[in-house]
Amino acid sequence: MGSPPWKIAGTRITVQGTRGKTSLALSLHSEIIRRNKSSFCKVTGAVPLLCINESLVRLRRGKYARLYENLFDIPKSDFCVLENQGITPYTMKVFNELFVKPKLIVVTNVRLDHVEDMGRSREKIARSMASSLKGAEIVFSGEANGRLNEILSKGAKRLIEVNSLEPELPGSEIPSLIDEVLKFFGMSGIDVRSYLASIRRNLTWREWEGILYFDASKVNDPDSASLLIKWLGNDPFLFIQLRKDRPGRTWAFLKMVRERWVDFYGVAVAGEWSEEFAKRVDGRKLPDSCDGADLLLNMIRDGGHPLFITGNRNGGLVGCLLGKLGVRDDLPSITDIRLKIR
């Protein structure tokens, strides 16, 4: 493979964890360039993006995300901020120790996702993450659970816990992490409360033709979904999009619904294993198509409860549903980024 291209960056930072990686990486990059430093940033997920200072472009990707999509030509810069897209202990470790060799690692949180590869509990997932941390001089953790931080610390040379100002607000750990990272590198911090206000503005029910809904289709772990449902309230009707290639995610959401982690009115599912899922939770199986989306919207109109959409972004029903609701993934301007939950 040779030397990674980002070796020419003066200071290298990787961002990992379960939720909020993309938001943190883009916002941190934006704040760095506002302080008259040069920076480039690569984020992954459903839409891989490359930011070089104020420019932002969408990268091409094949059918699957690969670590090698992070090999590209970039200019020399003061900083680089890279989202660790590994979803196994091995790929997270390779990303940090062979690709990037960061000075600092930021861990957003530890939640129940990618359980096939990382373990079926948050403690096991924390151990998987810990195995990839030792290459950095320092690790900042936004995880609020002290036991999980203790596990993470066993894999880090030095771990600093960063506390949220509003722990009940989903995603509130992210602005605190950004503030601490900037100050660690001798730059001015951010107005954390302003960022928190931006999060609160995004975490509200939306309205479409008399239907209240919240799009959490990118929030594909049950811990984060539960936090959002508690914050939004109103005993929503849950729609969970299932995927054939994410059986562990299906198991995790089934656990959430059966154990009633939050209050909700009812549940419907579509996609692989939806019939078995629905039987186990007294829910409704819907066709994974636009017909299913129409059935779901009619159910919400008749029931009068808000609709909470979660599980996965990829699927026939959810794709058609989001189109009907007018939800789009527009590329942001790097100079206008405000924190969102992803």
What report would you give on this structure?
There is one protein chain. With 342 residues, the chain is an alpha/beta fold. It has two domains: 5-197, Mur-like, catalytic domain (UDP-N-acetylmuramoyl-L-alanine:D-glutamate ligase, 3-Layer(aba) Sandwich); 205-325, Protein-Tyrosine Phosphatase, Chain A. Helix content is 37%, strand content 18%. It contains twelve helices and 14 strands. The strands form two sheets. The protein has an eight-stranded mixed sheet, sandwiched between helices. Strands 9-10-14-11-12-13 form a six-stranded mixed sheet, with helices on both faces. Strand 2 (39-43) and strand 3 form a beta hairpin. Helix 1 (21-34) runs parallel beside helix 6 (173-184), helix 4 packs parallel to helix 5 and helix 11 packs across helix 12. The model is unreliable at 338-342 (pLDDT under 50).
CATH topology of the largest domain: UDP-N-acetylmuramoyl-L-alanine:D-glutamate ligase
Radius of gyration: 20 Å
In whole angstroms, the N-to-C terminal distance is 31 Å
> Regions with pLDDT < 50 over 5+ consecutive residues?
338-342
Helix and strand content put the structural class at alpha/beta
Q: Element order, helices and strands?
A: EHEEEEHEHHEHEHHEEHEHEHEHEH
Overall helicity: 25-40%
Please give the number of β-strands: 14
Q: How many helical elements?
A: 12
* Average predicted local confidence, pLDDT: 89
How much strand content do the residues show? Answer: 15-25%
